[in-house]
Amino acid sequence: MLGELSEIQIESLLKQQVIGRIACQAEGNVYIVPVNYVYDGTYIYGHSSIGKKIEMMRKNPEVCFEADDIQSVFRWQSVIAWGRFEEITDANEKQQAMQRLIHRIMPLSDNPTDHPSHGITENDSDIGTRVELIVYRIKVSKKTGKFEHS
Prior knowledge:
By secondary structure, this protein is of the alpha+beta class. It has helices spanning 7-16, 52-59, 91-105; strands spanning 2-4, 19-26, 29-36, 38-39, 43-48, 62-72, 75-88, 134-148. Strands 1, 2, 3, 4, 5, 6, 7 and 8 form an eight-stranded antiparallel β-sheet that branches.
């Protein structure tokens, strides 16, 4: 059975998942990449270093975000959200956003050497010294969701 997720189901899926995909477009190029994230009901928060994704979102802040829960090819839920990329530059806001990410991501690790910026740099100590940490949020403006259950 195929169907549409309710608003409550959409919110629940976005809050439960920690890996989603950001799609961005700039200068005729389209790019999609997986990211760790946390969702607070208004914003999707993420972090990155400078690279293709950040450069494209700076040029065109309109993005699409996807998160899903796939149990099997016949049992899944998927949410698509549209919104606007906003780079967080205020030190306090940046710290609060990183705390949200840390509290959401780190309990899922079973390795004591893991750190929240594992996808950005191998060593946590490189953040702020060798690697610039970019913290951002996506202000969600529209969401849809689908499911299939056999």
